[in-house]
């Protein structure tokens, strides 16, 4: 499965997950903004800005984030999102513990563990 094959809800959630992974350490400065822009150009995710904008309009807190996660039922979509997040966590050469925590929480919600 590829990003282009995702429905809009899954694209919104993926965009939110990408931003959440980048912000997992609680900071969002120039480095994180540059990383987000780099990922946007690296990933074949043409409508990332629109998907992220709608995600941010819909998801106002962690409860609504996890509710949206639970709505993603297809394993191939879940696996794609997790693989992209794992790739992001290794961009600096080693996994970030905060990003790994997000991945682990998603795996738990989606019964991967």
From TrEMBL:
InterPro entries: DjlA_N, TerB-like. It holds the Pfam family TerB. Residues 21-106 form the Co-chaperone DjlA N-terminal domain. This is Co-chaperone DjlA N-terminal domain-containing protein. It comes from Marispirochaeta aestuarii.
